[in-house]
Structures are given as C-alpha cells and as structure tokens.
Design a protein that fits this description.
Blueprint (H helix, E strand, L loop, with lengths): L1 E5 L2 E4 L4 E8 L7 E7 L5 E7 L5 E3 L7 E6 L4 E6 L8 E8 L15 E2 L3 E6 L1
Parallel strand pairs: 2-11
Antiparallel strand pairs: 1-3, 3-8, 4-5, 4-9, 5-6, 7-8, 9-10, 9-11
C-alpha cells in the first residue's frame, strides 16, 4: 500500500490550495482517508476525514474553510483549503484505514497506512 500526498506549496493568507492523496495497492473504496497536519513545534493533529462511503468530518479549526472529497475512480482524496491562514502552515499527511466508522470516531482510530507528507506554508 502506498499513499502519495501532493499539492503543497507557499501561498499568501487568504489563498487556496488543493492537496491530493493518491493511493495504490489497496481497494480504495473500502478505506476511510484522513488528513492530519504537524505544525512547527506542535504535535500532529487531525484536519479532516472521509469515510469509505463518502461521509466527511472536519476539525473545528478548519470547518467552513477546508473540505474533503474523494474520487474512487482515481483512487484519490482531495483536501480543498480556502482562506488559508498563517496558522495553517504545517506538513500535511494523509492516512488510510479499512474501517467502517464515520464521523468523529475517524479522529481517533489508528490509521494503518500513511503518506509522506506535503508542506503547506502560508505567509501573512
């Protein structure tokens, strides 16, 4: 199983970015996929997740600005990030797990597979 996160970059506050998480080596439609991030000097934190059936859940800090979606035909999950803020600066990781849970429990499960991360830097 491989997860490839991409789409990060350097943007200004208020800009948008779309991250992609491309998966291979798994039955993608059976997996929940989540995005986490690690800001400089902080622990890794949950950002958003989408269940195998397409139900999404986001952290309060990004609710209304970020949205997660999936394209099972492309084995890809997207994280659309709008109105970016300097505090969104972090390395973003995607993770996948073959779980049937949805909603808040997606923040707490132990994901089996992780991507390598993509850096998002938001300047003020």
């Amino acid at each position: 199983v491989q997860l490839q996160a991409s789409g990060g970059g350097l943007v200004q506050a208020g800009d948008s970015l779309r991250l992609s998480c491309s998966a291979s080596g798994l039955t993608f439609s059976s997996y929940a996929v989540a995005w986490f991030r690690r800001a400089p000097g902080k622990e890794r934190g949950f950002v958003a997740a989408i269940s195998h059936s397409g139900s999404s859940y986001s952290a309060d800090s990004v609710e209304g600005r970020f949205s997660i979606s999936r394209d099972n035909d492309r084995n890809t999950v997207y994280l659309q990030m709008n109105n970016l803020k300097p505090e969104d600066t972090a390395v973003y990781y995607c993770a996948a797990d073959r779980t049937r849970v949805y909603g808040p429990p997606l923040t707490r499960i132990r994901y089996d597979h992780w991507g390598q991360g993509t850096l998002v830097t938001v300047s003020s």
